[in-house]
Amino acid sequence: MATTGRMGFRMAGNPGAGERVKKVLKAAVRSGTGAIGSVRAVRTTQPHVVLTFDDGPDPVGTERVLSTLAEHATTATFFVLTERVARFPRLLAETVAEGHEIALHGFDHCRLTRFRSREVVARVSGARRQLEDTLGAPVRWFRPPFGAQTPSTWRAIRRTGLEPVMWGPTAWDWLDEPVRDLAARAMERLVRGSILLAHDGYAGDPEQPSGIAPTFDRGELTAAVLEGIAERGLRGVSLADALAAGGTAERWAWFRR
Questions:
Q1: Verdict on whether the full-model pTM lies above 0.70
Q2: What is the structure's pLDDT at 25?
Q3: How far is residue 162 from each of residues 133, 155, 184, measured CA to CA in Å?
Q4: Cross-referenced PANTHER family, in alphabetical order (predicted)?
Q5: CA triplet 171, 96, 155: central angle to 5 degrees?
Q6: Long-range contacts at 212-217 (CB < 8 A, ≥ 24 apart)
Q7: pLDDT of residue 238
Q8: Per the CATH hierarchy, to which homologous superfamily does domain 39-252 belong?
């Protein structure tokens, strides 16, 4: 017997009803949580996908990613750790020189949800000053390690003058799996305006230091991802370039520990 849910859709005998409910709920969340939202996609008429790379700079991974991006005339946004910037300033300078956008991932890779709000402000604002002093330019975006964010840390990040940026599809490239498998994962939910999460380094979890860094070639993975993007008639760009081309940042809530 067919039943009707609260949203007014007939749930039985209609295979598409569940998907319609999901779409309605997703739209409601997006429209209702913008005031406390993080950037999670870009609304654009251009064939753009936003490429983002976390956890660098890394003397192996970053070099290979930069080389691949240059070969494809593609820009990206790099969310960097300032403890690594201090160790590899030349890599940061190279990334900037090749036209990429620099954003902040933190001083280190600790989950901010472990700290009180006051300490989050101190850690993020200190890392921001350090990065901007090195760059000689302002930084706009922040991505919390692991995407770990609560309403309290979101408010703390906003108090530093930065804006949280999360993601949609991801390559799951903290796992040591075949490149083609990782690239296929990156394509699973990728559409125009998606913000794609990838990594040019491996920071792991400081609370579980036994983690082992993946051994695949990050340049090779980047090439496979760009190939998949191109097959869909899309093009990878940095967040700054997507917005400069007329895109609008889409914000809705992202909270998880």
A1: yes
A2: 57
A3: 16, 10, 32
A4: 4-DEOXY-4-FORMAMIDO-L-ARABINOSE-PHOSPHOUNDECAPRENOL DEFORMYLASE ARND-RELATED (PTHR10587:SF137), GLYCOSYL TRANSFERASE-RELATED (PTHR10587)
A5: 65
A6: 212/176, 213/176, 214/173, 214/174, 214/175, 214/176, 214/177, 215/176, 216/173, 216/176, 216/177, 216/178, 216/179, 216/182, 217/64, 217/179
A7: 99
A8: Glycoside hydrolase/deacetylase (3.20.20.370)
How far from the centroid of its chain's Cα atoms is residue 3's Cα?
40
Q: How confident is the model at residue 211 (pLDDT cuts 50, 70, 90)?
A: confident
Position 19 pLDDT exceeds 80: no
Q: How many CA atoms lie within 13 A of 77 on its CB side?
A: 26
Q: What are phi and psi of 156, to 5 degrees?
A: -65, -45
Instruction: List Cβ neighbours of 209 (8 Å cut-off, separation of 6 or more).
Output: none
Which of 23-37, 68-82, 111-125, 195-209 comes out lowest in average pLDDT?
A: 23-37
**Cβ neighbours of residue 240 closer than 8 Å, sequence gap 6 or more:** 75, 77, 101
Average per-residue pLDDT in the chain? 92
